[in-house]
Write a structure and sequence with these properties.
With about 300 residues, the chain is mostly helical. It has helices at about 10-35, 50-60, 65-70, 75-105, 110-140, 150-165, 170-190, 205-240, 245-255, 265-300. Helix 8 (about 205-240) packs antiparallel against helix 10 (about 265-300).
Length: about 300
């Protein structure tokens, strides 16, 4: 992602950055999943460790989803992190590598920027959907399902094999625009930000500042655009309704306010992981390039 680098050379950096972002942002994702799904959080009755029981009873209801999200037990943690890690790594690596390939074939910059995330994020969403549905349903505080395996089994027993992919349409409508927007904004800022002077003694810091700007803009743009589709997808998961019926049910319950249900949590839970994945990838690539340059100078002496 860093200017002048080739994605082909750094697949490990993409995956490492995506994994760190997924681990750090798991509680935020959990809060967003609870908020957008409309799950009820009653801290006093939740199954918390004894050390947190008294604290939970004193937490205001407005902060209950956040307290729940940051508190154990972390059901589905490993599966959620694994799913997020490979998915974001595949999307960002595939998009950057795909852009390089399409540009070398003579495609226009806009096509090379938008087409790879469109294709890759669609494929990733289809492959990841059973895991996504199972992990979101697992976050219901009132659910007695203990782990991801049982969550998948329950979905299969209740709705058959097709139930594992229920909500794929809304998932694609949400995921594909989010990543296409984020990557388009990222690449736009890469083009318009002033280049870093290679002779500057602060060039490494300036590159990281540039990365922070573009990654923040990309994360917020992608999150704000797709919040309504997150809400619809999670309602489909919760109720097993189809796309149109889920929209009708949400509208009957909340009016058009359903479009912004969980928006504040989603802006945090979606923008921060996307932004941190981009930023960490740039930082890891920059660090790797610096090490290679240092090793090259050492050999020349």
């Amino acid at each position: 992602m860093t200017g002048g680098s080739t994605a082909k050379e750094y697949p490990a950096q993409y995956f490492s950055a995506s994994t760190i972002a997924a681990v750090l942002n798991y509680p935020l994702w959990r809060a967003s999943a609870v908020g957008q799904s409309g799950f009820r959080v009653v801290l006093q009755s939740a199954n918390y460790p004894p050390v947190l029981t008294h604290v939970a009873s004193a937490v205001p209801q407005s902060l209950a989803p956040y307290f729940h999200a940051f508190s154990p037990p972390y059901k589905g943690l490993a599966a959620t992190v694994m799913g997020m890690s490979w998915a974001r790594a595949a999307i960002f690596y595939g998009s950057d590598r795909g852009k390089e390939i399409l540009l070398s074939m003579g495609f226009a910059n806009t096509t090379a920027t938008v087409l790879p995330p469109l294709v890759v994020s669609t494929a990733v969403q289809c492959v990841n959907m059973p895991l996504v549905r199972a992990t979101i349903l697992l976050q219901n505080p009132e659910s007695n399902v203990p782990n991801i395996r049982e969550s998948l089994r329950q979905i299969y027993n209740s709705h058959g094999i097709s139930g594992l992919w229920h909500g794929t349409s809304a998932g694609i409508l949400k995921t594909v625009p989010k990543y296409c927007t984020a990557i388009f904004v990222k690449d736009y800022f890469e083009r318009v930000l002033p280049p870093v002077d290679p002779e500057s003694e602060h060039k490494d810091r300036e590159k990281l500042v540039h990365s922070a700007i573009k990654s923040s803009a990309a994360g917020v743009a992608g999150a704000a655009l797709t919040n309504p589709l997150d809400v619809i997808r999670n309602e489909m998961f919760k109720t097993n309704l189809g796309l149109v019926d889920a929209i009708r049910s949400l509208h009957n319950e909340l009016g058009w306010n359903f479009l912004v249900r969980g928006m504040s949590k989603n802006l945090i839970a979606v923008s921060i992981p996307v932004a941190s994945t981009i930023f960490f990838t740039d930082a890891f690539i920059q660090f790797t390039k610096s090490r290679k340059e240092d090793d090259g100078r050492s050999r020349s002496y």
